[in-house]
C-alpha cells in the first residue's frame, strides 16, 4: 500500500514532487487526472492519504473530493494549490479535507504535514479532523502547526508556530529563557554572555512579527515586556 496517491495534471511538477516525497521516505503512486485516480480506487488501490491538485482537468479537486465522499471513501485528502485564496481554503476544510497547502510553501512544509496525518493513520484514525484553537483573530491548527490570522495563513515555520502557540495558549508573560527553550531545548546556551540568548529571541520575534504584519499591517498582538520577555495581547485590549 503506498502512503500517498498524488493527483496532479502537470507532468513535470508531478514527477519532481513524487521524487521529493520518495526522498523523504514516503511511497507514492501518481495520477494525471481525477477519472484515472477514481478508476484505480475502483480497481482496489489503497493508500493512507490522497494529495490532490485543486485545479485538475475534467473534474476539479473539489468535485473529486465530493465523489470520494459520495462513494463512502474516507481517505484523508490534502489539497495542493498554486493560489492561497482564503475562500478556497475554507471551502476545502468545510468539504472535509484535512489540510490545504500552497505549493509555494515548499516540500519540507508539505512533508511535515503529511507525516502528522500518517502518524494519525498508524494510530487508527481514518479521517483526522483538524483541531482549531482560536484566540480573537488568530486560529491555530495544532495537528499541522499552522497559524491563520484573519483567515490568512501567516506562513510560520514549525519553530515559529511553537513560539506563537506558547504565547497564545500559555497565557501571561513568557520569559526570554522560556521562548529560547522552545527554539532549541531546555538548558541550551548560545550567544555571548549569560543572557546572550536574548538577542536570538529578539531576532526570532522580529521575524514572526514581520510575517503577521505582511498579512495585516495593523497587527500588534505580540507585546514585549521590558527585560522580561513577551506576551500575547488579550483580546479585550
How would you describe what is shown here?
The protein is elongated. By secondary structure, it is an alpha/beta fold. Helices cover 41% and strands 19% of the residues. It is built from eight helices and twelve strands. Residues 129-234 bind DNA. Residues 129-234 form the OmpR/PhoB-type domain. The modification 4-aspartylphosphate is found at residue 53. Keywords: DNA-binding, Phosphoprotein.
Explain briefly what this protein structure is.
This protein has helices at 11-23, 34-42, 61-70, 86-94, 107-122, 158-170, 176-183, 197-215, and strands at 4-7, 28-31, 49-53, 77-81, 99-102, 133-135, 138-141, 146-149, 152-153, 173-175, 222-225, 229-232. The chain has 237 residues and is α/β, with parallel strands linked by helices.
Question: What is CATH's topology name of the largest domain?
Answer: Rossmann fold
The succession of helices and strands, N to C, reads: EHEHEHEHEHEEEEHEHHEE
Structural class: alpha/beta
For the biggest sheet, the summary is:
5 strands, parallel
Total count of strands:
12
Straight-line N-to-C gap:
52 Å
What is the general shape? Answer: elongated
Identify the CATH homologous superfamily of the largest domain: Response regulator
Query: What's the arrangement of strands in the largest beta sheet?
Result: 2-1-3-4-5
Modified residues (4-aspartylphosphate): 53
GO molecular function, one term: transcription cis-regulatory region binding
DNA-binding region: 129-234
Domain Response regulatory: 3-118
Amino acid at each position: 500500500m503506498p502512503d500517498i496517491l498524488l493527483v496532479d495534471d502537470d507532468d513535470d511538477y508531478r514527477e519532481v514532487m513524487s521524487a521529493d516525497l520518495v526522498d523523504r521516505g514516503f511511497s507514492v503512486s501518481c495520477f494525471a487526472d481525477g477519472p484515472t485516480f477514481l478508476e484505480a480506487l475502483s480497481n482496489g488501490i489503497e493508500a493512507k492519504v490522497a494529495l490532490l491538485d485543486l485545479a485538475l482537468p475534467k473534474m476539479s479537486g473539489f468535485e473529486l473530493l465530493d465523489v470520494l465522499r459520495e462513494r463512502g471513501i474516507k481517505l484523508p485528502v490534502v489539497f495542493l494549490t498554486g493560489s492561497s485564496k482564503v475562500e478556497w481554503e475554507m471551502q476545502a476544510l468545510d468539504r472535509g479535507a484535512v489540510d490545504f497547502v500552497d505549493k509555494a510553501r515548499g516540500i519540507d512544509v508539505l512533508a511535515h504535514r503529511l507525516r502528522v496525518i500518517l502518524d494519525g493513520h498508524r494510530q487508527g484514525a481514518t479521517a483526522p479532523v483538524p483541531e482549531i484553537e482560536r484566540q480573537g483573530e488568530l486560529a491555530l491548527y495544532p495537528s499541522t502547526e499552522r497559524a491563520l490570522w484573519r483567515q490568512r495563513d501567516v506562513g510560520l515555520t514549525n519553530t515559529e508556530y511553537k513560539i506563537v502557540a506558547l504565547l497564545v495558549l500559555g497565557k501571561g508573560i513568557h520569559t526570554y529563557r522560556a521562548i529560547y527553550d522552545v527554539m532549541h531545548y531546555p538548558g541550551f546556551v548560545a550567544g555571548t554572555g549569560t543572557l546572550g540568548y536574548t538577542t536570538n529571541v529578539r531576532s526570532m520575534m522580529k521575524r514572526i512579527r514581520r510575517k503577521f504584519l505582511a498579512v495585516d499591517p495593523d497587527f500588534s498582538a505580540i507585546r514585549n515586556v521590558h527585560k522580561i520577555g513577551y506576551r500575547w495581547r488579550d483580546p479585550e485590549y
